[in-house]
Design goal:
By secondary structure, the protein is of the alpha/beta class. 33% of the residues lie in helices and 25% in strands. The chain is built from eight helices and ten strands. The strands form two sheets. The chain has a six-stranded mixed sheet with strand order 6-7-8-3-9-10, with helices on both faces. A four-stranded antiparallel sheet has the order 2-1-4-5, covered by helices on one side. Strand 1 and strand 2 form a beta hairpin. The two termini are 25 Å apart. The C terminus is likely disordered.
Length: 241
């Protein structure tokens, strides 16, 4: 059996604030295979964004293990993380994180540059689908919030990542544009090449994903994992139970 693309084993994350320790993730067991899509829902502060940050390597785990594409990341140093992010990971941030000195096309092409690739038909398809093909020469600081969000989405997908992490990708879009984005994210998973983990408050957006999980107080209940037919073959059991 092929290994999952993402595996979290008994993963916990804590932050220290002065003399207090805040537990944000608590013993999370989770697996995501190539071509699968999962919507992660939950109240503000439940740990959704922290889970994405841990998987992307922006935040280290306090306890437990993170495996990516068959490798235990505990031994990874900066070069391994950089290689994974450049070659296999796409991230859609809430704050866009566009490169302001660059125009729209240069922002979208940035991950291609990192992988020594050139603009291609896939990029043309992305900008056309996202409605930004007429904006390629524009400076990103001159764009509206919704336009910047669409540029950020195109940049995250330009190099056809194996894993896409999306944090409220339609939060700055109107209903029509949001629908087009969710159709696009659904399409790339049905093509079988990209796994998607989507954080959203929107039930309508969550419906576009193959599976929905809810996180509460930093936990994903085992009963939800057992119902998740896209990842249950990778379900992680506590050997001490």
């Amino acid at each position: 059996m092929e290994s999952p693309l993402v595996t979290l084993k008994h993963a916990s994350k804590s932050f220290v604030d002065g003399k207090e320790t805040h537990r944000v993730l608590e013993g999370v067991n989770f697996a995501l295979s190539t071509g699968a899509s999962v919507a992660l829902t939950g109240a503000s502060g439940s740990g959704k964004s922290t889970l994405l940050n841990v998987i992307a390597g922006f935040e280290p785990l306090s306890e437990g293990e993170l495996w990516l594409d068959g490798d235990n990341t505990a031994a990874w140093k900066d070069p391994q993380w950089s290689r994974f992010r450049h070659q296999k990971l796409g991230v859609i941030f809430q704050q866009f994180n566009l490169l302001t000195p660059l125009n729209v096309q240069q922002n979208i092409a940035f991950p291609l540059h990192l992988n020594q690739q050139k603009w291609n038909d896939w990029c043309d398809y992305l900008v056309e689908t996202l409605g930004i093909s007429q904006l390629l020469d524009r400076h990103v600081s001159a764009l509206s919030g919704g336009q910047q969000q669409r540029v950020a989405i195109a940049r995250a997908l330009a190099h056809k990542p194996k894993l896409l992490l999306a944090d409220e990708p339609t939060g700055n879009l109107d209903q029509k544009a949001g629908l087009e984005v969710m159709k696009l994210l659904s399409e790339i998973t049905t093509q079988g090449n990209t796994a998607v983990l989507l954080v959203t408050h929107s039930p309508d957006c969550a419906e576009f994903m193959q599976t929905q999980l809810r996180i509460e107080d930093g936990r994903i209940e085992n009963s939800q994992l057992q119902k998740c037919h896209h990842i249950d073959k990778y379900e992680l059991r506590d050997e001490t139970s």
